[in-house]
Amino acid sequence: MKDQMDARIGYFDAAACDVAAFEALIAQETPRDICPRAIDIQSKVPIYDMAALRPELETTDTRRALMSEWAQVLLSGPGAVVLKRAYADTGVLDEATEIFSVIIAEEKAEQGGGADHFAAAGANDRIWNVQEKLCLRAPDVFVRYFANTTLDAISEAWLGRGYQMTSQVNLVHPGGAAQEAHRDYHLGFMTTEEAAGFPVHMHLLSPLLTLQGAVAHCDMPVASGPTQLLPYSQAYPAGYVAFRLPEFRAAFARSAVQLPLDKGDALFFNPALFHAAGANRTTDIERMANLFQVSSPMGRSLEKLDRLAMAKAVYPHLGQVSGLEQVAAIAAAAEGYPFPTNLDSDPPVGVLAPESDQALLRRALDEGMPPAALNAALDAAAAKRG
User: Fold this and answer.
1) Residues 380 and 234 in one domain
2) ω before 173 within 30° of 0 (cis)?
3) Which of 61, 189, 220, 325 has a Cα-to-Cα distance from 366 of 20 to 30 A?
4) Which residue, among 185, 181, 238, has the nearest Cα to 208 in the 3D structure?
């Protein structure tokens, strides 16, 4: 294993995975000096009070310092952060929850509801591609929901600008069983054999392409089953071929932690972290979270969204917010990366890259472009891309 990690070449073999080395890795504690802006460390996970830190996101230097801290925690620290009071006003969460509940009822009536990756059918209700569904059904709510500088900053901290936001709602009913321990997209959505077919350096790259997160739409005491996390497990290089092995799942069961969340709190973690939704042991809490899988603009996102339609839908409502909140709302709706494109019809004349749809929306706002003109410009840009 050490030779493979040092050389960064070769392939991982599930039979060679070393659970003793894994347990030594997850036994470490979180040093205070890697998360000086956290208000607390609970079960090895840093806790950040965004009500106090939100102003730091308004200035480049303090914003970058905080984002750098988060990136270090996610990469080489415990692999997860809790962002308390990520939503200063949870009223928009209540509005979104009402819409999500309607969508769940409609989809259950039409097709029986969405299945889940790592939980038994019927244990929960799932809305796939809720990002697009909320945007097109209630663009005013969408803008206020995603005009959130905290979500924008944590996504940029891990993935850079132009990230691709996708989200899926998960509603776990009282008595709902826990998920199995797993890693997430990309390699986590493959069989062990498929993942083992990718070279070592791709195992190291995969978690850098996605950020996993959740926003609590209700108070989530531990009994309701907030996500089980295994701090430091993201640092085990062969984890994508190890997480299904019985001895690794047993290690997860012994050492996983859960942190209670209040409505409006957010949890974000490295997708290579071993994790699983917990069992809802309550009799009265319908545990709803909006789950985020944010992707690098240089990778492939989990879901395919009609971002052209979303950009058109949100533009008339962007005046509700301003500054970095407006930037965040645009980032959640429109495409921020100008590739792939057809360079014959969409050449980067005088620049290194064509204008992205996010840049077009920002320019349209600056110029006071009417919605019809913006829609025409978006259509023309899409036609050039082919």
Assistant:
1) no
2) no
3) 61
4) 185
